[in-house]
């Protein structure tokens, strides 16, 4: 690695470090709940490496606890991670010239945190090498902190008596993620509608109410976002005369 590459890599690591405290609680929960569900440490770590997506892993834990159908678990994990399609589409014009052997590891390691840092920093004028090393720095720092916190959760979870049920931690984790993601009226409408559908259809078998809440909430969110955007554009045109 050249000196400039090392500098860009370390800069990515440095920029990611302030976000590590936000990753640790979810990793601890994922590791500790793997133990409480009866998974072996190898299974939990394997699941962590396979998913490499904390929200999808916690959602899968929740559905496994509720004995949902495998198809429901897989569909839910895919829907929770559907935002990565948008991340990839955003990066495509900026990283399309990278070599394939560099793209695949970055595809696997992309995360919310790495995306947020890179999306605000990358420009078409930057060199591929600069973008590659900075992205790698953020991605590796996040991966080490995530997997490390899951392993720590496994160690802590083994020390916790079985009667100290940790199941409550997963809904709390999702509530924390939900609140932090509500940033405008469209996302608030989506969250409220999804919650109403999920609670009203809770009696459906195989957790199908959860799937209905995802599909219904996404649909209403798109409609609300389009409507709000039209209202804003109309008001802007009226103000401009």
UniProtKB/TrEMBL annotation:
| Subcellular locations according to the entry | Cell membrane
At the top level, the lineage of the source is Bacteria
Membrane-traversing stretches: 16-33, 45-64, 70-95, 132-156, 162-179, 186-204, 210-228
**A Pfam short name:** AzlC
Cellular component GO terms, alphabetical:
plasma membrane
Q: Which UniProt keywords apply?
A: Cell membrane, Membrane, Transmembrane, Transmembrane helix, Transport
Which topology term describes how it sits in the membrane? Multi-pass membrane protein
Which terms does the UniProt entry file under GO BP? L-valine transmembrane transport
- Which PANTHER family does the entry link to? INNER MEMBRANE PROTEIN YGAZ
- Protein family (similarity comment): Belongs to the AzlC family.
Spell out the protein name for this chain.
Answer: Branched-chain amino acid permease
Its organism's taxonomic lineage begins at:
Bacteria, Pseudomonadati, Pseudomonadota, Gammaproteobacteria, Aeromonadales
């Amino acid at each position: 690695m050249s000196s400039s590459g090392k500098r860009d890599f370390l800069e990515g690591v440095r920029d990611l470090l302030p976000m590590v405290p936000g990753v640790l609680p979810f990793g601890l929960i994922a590791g500790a709940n793997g133990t409480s569900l009866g998974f072996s440490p190898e299974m939990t770590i394997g699941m962590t490496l396979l998913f490499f997506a904390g929200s999808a892993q916690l959602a899968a834990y929740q559905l496994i606890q509720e004995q949902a159908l495998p198809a429901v678990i897989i569909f839910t994990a895919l829907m929770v991670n559907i935002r990565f399609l948008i991340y990839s589409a955003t990066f495509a014009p900026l990283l399309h010239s990278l070599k394939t052997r560099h793209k695949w590891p970055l595809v696997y390691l992309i995360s919310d945190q790495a995306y947020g840092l890179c999306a605000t920093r990358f420009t078409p004028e930057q060199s591929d090498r600069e973008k590659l090393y900075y992205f790698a720095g953020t991605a590796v720092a996040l991966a080490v902190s995530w997997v490390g916190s899951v392993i720590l959760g496994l160690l802590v979870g083994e020390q916790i008596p079985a009667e100290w049920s940790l199941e409550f931690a997963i809904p709390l984790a999702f509530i924390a993620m939900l609140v932090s993601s509500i940033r405008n009226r469209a996302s608030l409408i989506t969250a409220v509608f999804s919650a109403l559908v999920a609670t009203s259809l809770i009696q459906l078998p195989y957790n199908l109410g959860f799937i209905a809440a995802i599909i219904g909430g996404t649909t209403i969110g798109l409609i609300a976002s389009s409507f709000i955007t039209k209202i804003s554009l109309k008001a802007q045109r009226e103000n401009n005369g």
